[in-house]
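Hi R.,

Here's the chain you asked about this morning:
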Amino acid sequence: MSSDPNQLSNDDEALILDSIDRFLERDVRPYAHDLEASDTWPADIVDKMKELGLFGATISADYGGLGLSATTYAKIVERVSAVWMSVSGIFNSHLIMAAAVERFGSEEMKLRYLPRFARGDLRGGIALTEPDAGTDLQGIRTRAVRDGDAYVVNGAKTWISNSVEGHLLAVLVKTDSKAEPAHRGMSLLLIEKGEGFRVSRKLQKLGYKGIDSGEIAFEDCRVPAANLIGSEGRGLQQILAGLELGRINVAARGVGIARACLEESVAYSTVRKTFGKPICEHQAIQFKLADMATRLEASRLLVEQAARAYDRGERCDMEAGMAKLFATETAIHNSLEAMRLHGAYGYSKEYNIERYYRDAPLLAIGEGTNELQRIIIARQLVARFQS
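And here is the predicted structure, written out as tokens:
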């Protein structure tokens, strides 16, 4: 994403958000429950997302995207996640990949890929996690060895979104296994599906269904050297820069789930009666609703603060970490409170509450665990104090 994004007027932003709301009510909400229950990839919804330009949401207009700011993008993600969180993951992973190409790729690479990314003709994500390396990315083992005008890639990745239904991935690899420190030997390759690129299985998950999460094996996979994003040895820094937007996205997802839990809880509390009156009139329920609402608003403000810093081109790992930490913990808190408030109905698959309860914990793990966010926040606090 450009550091000078296209800032929309309030009216233009309202039009975009209104189109997203209409898309969600018409094309997502009526089908989300059944698609999630069967863990079916939502092909028709993806086609509608292509028409809306969501796969180019944060890609510069110079390359055919919408060029939206992170601030507007976060509002879109919140709305989508409040209806079905899995949909937001389909375009978020794709846009992190696109951001890496737009920020660090050559002009030839940008012209070759970004317009097709923006149209959704080519869709993908990022491949970082390995069976023995998640939060500690310097521990990856996937290797890329230069052989003439290509790299030969061998290794495995797991928990990769869009790997089954997508077309390509930005893959973190080791191009120099002897480099010290380890991050100096890590690079980022754009790898299209083909010979040597095998999706070994689709992973089964507690929640976050509909979006595909796969395990990948690279077996003597030849990748053109021109598909190196930026230069060798800069892969970790490049992907961490992209994760700032990714963490803002995950935080916005948390806001969306927290919002859905609150809205459904308020609605339910006005019709469910105990001891002769709606439960919203009981003080114990009022305390729950008040806490849920306050956490939601605080989360939304933290996301907005991080997004605005990102839009100004500022380093915002602390702000994004704070937003990600608080908003995702709020999603978990609100989903549990919503289940308690709904009682047995909250535990039933006929209602959405149990889906929110299953989806929310993922947010505390993805894009860097919340324990890691606490470390990032603390280190930035100390660094800013010492400077």
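One quick note: The chain has three domains: 10-119, 125-231, 236-386.

Cheers,
M.
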